[in-house]
Design brief:
Layout: E1 11-14, E2 18-21, E3 31-36, E4 40-44, E5 50-53, H1 59-67, H2 69-79
Antiparallel strand pairs: 1-2, 2-3, 3-4, 4-5
Amino acid sequence: MPIHAKFRLPTIRRLANCKISIYADDHLPAHFHIEGRSFRAIIEIETMVVRAGDVRRAREALTWAETNIELLRSKWLRLNRRR
């Protein structure tokens, strides 16, 4: 079973080559996941620092995230109330 299979994984945004998701009950710091056909990355919401993975093919997702940081913050808080 994948590591987050037991958690809800809402897709926040679908883009041409990837999707942006936030896991429920996930660890700090607040972050989102970018998942594409052959790449994955974890990005911290407040700083947009890449915590893991490869973002070379995720420019569109990073651009979208930078302009929608308030939405990402609110989704993180709703899905991770215990944090």
